[in-house]
């Protein structure tokens, strides 16, 4: 490539001074221009396994020219003002009895910790309005370390901050976190941190921003973790216990720290979307053995972006941009020392190479700057690249003024776990309000609900749902009705298998409205009383978006769905081992795109048929969890197309007997055996496979 001429900095500086540009702005602009003008070359890769031979994959092998037109930059964040009405039963920590003060002076450690201790494992939504809340010690989730949400009003204006040079946080050899949400075992259900900033201040090199764990349904959303002076051990730590997830992280930024993000251990997988790493001092991201799925990773750093070590790790990286500065030109952006990896549509600037893979005494280098697709292992029977189904972003709605919400307790509802709230909920829906709220508590529904009229958001305050008796045959618990509002968001409540006795589909959408499901638990018709359900039927014509949901989904012909972290665990009948009984996702003629999945128990991850098209990109098949036997392949593709990138963990010697079975017109034409795709802990690993 022809080099660009260097700009004349002296003339430019004189001109900017003459027009009155502030010196601080000028210095930043000059620094940026120096960076852009500096030669960016491959540099000299560090030797990891010298004198190992080096094999450089040609540019043609990883994609040539610009990345796929399907790749988009991360969507801009919407303005936040997350406020709940008083009737929601949200616990405002700035009010009595806690009286937290966001004045940037008062120590709020005792007030916030007391709230965490007072509401353990209750589905409590603990709320902090905008302000700067000083804390002096680690905030720890209460007893059982689950079913707890820390919610801010906005990411940038709800700030939890350490004082400078705080005792207990100054020794990097004995790190301490600002927040700790629980550890082993993997029962940290529905833990969430949302819309706030964690600031470790200055002079706290032993600080860790957030130690976070959640299981099945749980998320960290719209969070900034920053170090005031760049020091600190880890920004987001998910490496301190022996299992993490499955859970979802979206809209995360980490500034500073020795390591930005640390993930570890072979179960249970974590899915990330829209992550920014800036100014780490040693490493952007350390992954040791964990299945990690990431889309829209943006990194601006002088250090390597990712180092993956440890047996069984699997990293899926999509639609990302990694920018190196200064000494980054001496390092690979991605350093793969163990495990597997799949990359699609990656742009790398300022690093010696996009990726370096070291294995079995050999080093493979992928140069970049654009990596269209790359997999750590090519498997037999696969096409050269993924299907590249169109990817749509999950629609976002503005947050309505809470004064305009319809809260079901204003319409006769009780949310007491005993009273039937069906009529109250339907009256709230029919009130003409655009947001309908289920307050904290337990809502009982004994008859079907139609979400119609002007409603565009049905939101729970971490509300539990009970469906205590069967509903009329052929009905769904919720049905999307016609509305002038094109998008409906249903979010933030949960039912449990043992509370679902309806034998009914959870939600049906026969309209053209777009349906968005977020932070929902056990969205399924499978229950103790109905062990062989059909999952949630997706028939279209409206599009479906799913984020951080447990439950099975069944796409019918023409349906279109985009899912970001799905966990289809079910209470299936071990006596019935037929394919029709045991499956996690079913696609019969629809189009399905999945960013990260975690399955548990027997049966196929995907049963596809009738000309369907599916992409499962990233995740974990925990095949031994809840399974006595595995009688079916992991993926059954009957007259269908699919792209698959996933790994398996199995600790009971009952891994999938076949990873992929392809049939055409009833005849098996391909079978991928586990020995053809090794790499998962006790099971197989599919870095990338696509129907030819």
List the defining traits of the structure above:
single chain, 692 residues, mainly beta, 14-stranded mixed sheet, 5 helices, 49 strands, disordered N terminus
What does this protein look like?
By secondary structure, the chain is mainly β. Helix content is 7%, strand content 42%. The strands form 5 sheets. Strands 2, 3, 4, 5, 7, 8, 10, 12, 14, 16, 18, 20, 22 and 25 form a 14-stranded mixed sheet that branches. Strands 26, 27, 28, 29, 31, 33, 35, 37, 39, 41, 43, 45, 48 and 49 form a 14-stranded mixed sheet that branches. Strands 1-24-23-21-19-17-15-13-11-9-6 form an 11-stranded mixed sheet. A hairpin with a 2-residue loop joins strand 48 (678-680) and strand 49. The longest helix has 15 residues, at 23-37. 54% of the residues are buried. Residues 1-70 have low confidence and may be disordered.
Q: Which secondary structure elements does this structure contain, and how are they paired or packed?
A:
Elements (H helix, E strand, L loop, with lengths): L8 H10 L4 H15 L16 E4 L1 H4 L28 E2 L10 E5 L1 H10 L5 E5 L2 E4 L4 E2 L7 E5 L5 E4 L14 E5 L11 E8 L7 E5 L7 E8 L7 E5 L8 E9 L3 E6 L5 E9 L4 E6 L2 E11 L4 E4 L4 E11 L7 E5 L3 E10 L3 E7 L2 E5 L3 E6 L30 E2 L8 E5 L1 H8 L5 E4 L3 E3 L4 E3 L5 E11 L8 E5 L6 E14 L4 E4 L5 E8 L14 E3 L5 E7 L2 E3 L4 E8 L17 E4 L2 E10 L5 E4 L3 E10 L12 E4 L2 E9 L10 E5 L2 E6 L5 E3 L2 E8 L2
Parallel strand pairs: 1-24, 2-4, 3-5, 4-7, 5-8, 6-9, 7-10, 8-10, 9-11, 10-12, 11-13, 12-14, 13-15, 14-16, 15-17, 16-18, 17-19, 18-20, 19-21, 20-22, 21-23, 26-28, 27-29, 28-31, 29-31, 30-32, 31-33, 32-34, 33-35, 35-37, 36-38, 37-39, 38-40, 39-41, 40-42, 41-43, 42-44, 43-45, 44-46
Antiparallel strand pairs: 22-25, 23-24, 45-49, 46-47, 48-49
């Amino acid at each position: 490539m022809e080099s660009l001429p260097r700009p004349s900095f002296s003339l430019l500086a004189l001109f900017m001074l003459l027009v009155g540009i502030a010196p601080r702005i000028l210095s930043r602009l000059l620094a940026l221009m120096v960076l852009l003008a500096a030669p960016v070359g491959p540099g000299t890769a560090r030797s990891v396994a010298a004198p190992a031979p080096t094999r450089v994959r040609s540019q043609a092998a990883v994609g040539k020219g610009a990345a796929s037109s399907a790749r988009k930059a991360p969507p801009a964040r919407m303005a936040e003002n997350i406020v709940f009405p008083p009737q929601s039963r949200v616990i405002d920590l700035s009010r009595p009895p806690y009286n937290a003060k966001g004045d940037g002076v008062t120590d709020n450690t005792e007030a916030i910790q007391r709230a965490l201790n007072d509401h353990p494992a209750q589905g409590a939504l603990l709320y902090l309005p905008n302000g700067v809340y000083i804390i002096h010690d680690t905030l720890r989730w209460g007893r059982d370390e689950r079913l707890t949400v820390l919610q801010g009003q906005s990411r940038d204006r709800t700030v939890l901050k350490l004082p400078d040079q705080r005792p207990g946080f100054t020794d990097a050899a004995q790190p301490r976190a600002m927040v700790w949400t629980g550890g082993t075992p993997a029962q940290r259900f529905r833990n969430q941190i949302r819309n706030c900033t964690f600031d470790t201040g200055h002079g706290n090199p032993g600080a860790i921003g957030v130690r976070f764990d959640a299981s099945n349904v749980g998320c960290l959303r719209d969070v900034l973790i920053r170090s005031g002076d760049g020091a600190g051990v880890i920004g987001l730590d998910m490496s301190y216990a022996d299992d993490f997830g499955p859970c979802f992280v979206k809209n995360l930024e980490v500034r500073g720290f020795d390591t930005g993000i640390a993930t570890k251990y072979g179960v249970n997988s974590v899915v990330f979307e829209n992550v920014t790493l800036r100014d780490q001092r040693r490493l952007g991201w350390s992954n040791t053995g964990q299945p990690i799925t990431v889309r829209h990773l943006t990194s601006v750093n002088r250090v390597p972006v990712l180092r993956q070590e440890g047996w069984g790790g699997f990293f899926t990286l999509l639609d990302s941009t990694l920018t190196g500065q200064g000494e980054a030109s001496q390092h690979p952006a991605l350093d793969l020392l163990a495990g597997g990896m799949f990359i699609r549509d990656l742009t790398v600037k300022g690093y010696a190479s996009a990726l370096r893979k070291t294995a079995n005494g050999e080093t493979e280098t992928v140069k970049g700057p654009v990596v269209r697709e790359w997999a750590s292992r090519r498997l037999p029977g696969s096409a050269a690249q993924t299907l590249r189904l169109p990817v749509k972003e999950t629609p976002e709605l503005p947050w309505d003024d809470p004064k305009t919400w319809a809260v079901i307790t204003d319409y006769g509802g009780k949310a007491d776990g005993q009273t039937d709230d069906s009529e109250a909920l339907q009256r709230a829906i029919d009130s003409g309000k655009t947001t309908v709220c289920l307050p904290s508590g337990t809502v009982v529904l004994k008859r079907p609900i139609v979400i119609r009229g002007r409603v565009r958001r049905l939101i729970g305050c971490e509300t539990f749902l009970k469906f205590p008796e069967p509903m009329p045959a052929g009905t769904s618990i919720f049905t999307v009705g016609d509305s002038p509002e094109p998008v409906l968001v249903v979010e933030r409540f949960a039912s449990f298998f043992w509370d679902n006795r309806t034998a009914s589909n959870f939600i049906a959408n026969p309209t053209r409205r777009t349906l968005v499901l977020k932070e929902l638990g056990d969205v399924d018709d499978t229950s103790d009383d109905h062990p062989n359900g059909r999952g949630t039927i997706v028939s279209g014509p409206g599009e479906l978006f799913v984020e951080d949901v447990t439950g099975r989904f069944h796409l019918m012909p023409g349906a279109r769905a985009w899912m970001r972290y799905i966990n289809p665990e079910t209470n299936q009948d071990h006596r019935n081992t037929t394919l029709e009984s045991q499956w996690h996702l079913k696609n019969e003629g629809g189009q399905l795109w999945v960013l990260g999945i975690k399955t548990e128990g027997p049966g196929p991850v995907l049963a596809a048929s009738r000309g369907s098209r599916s992409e499962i990109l990233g995740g974990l098949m925990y095949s031994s969890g809840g399974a006595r036997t595995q009688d079916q392949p992991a993926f059954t593709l009957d007259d269908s197309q699919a792209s698959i990138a996933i790994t398996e963990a199995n600790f009971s010697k009952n891994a999938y007997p076949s990873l992929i079975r392809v049939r055409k017109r009833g005849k098996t034409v391909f079978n991928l055996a586990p020995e053809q795709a090794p790499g998962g802990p006790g099971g197989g690993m599919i870095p990338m496979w696509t129907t030819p």
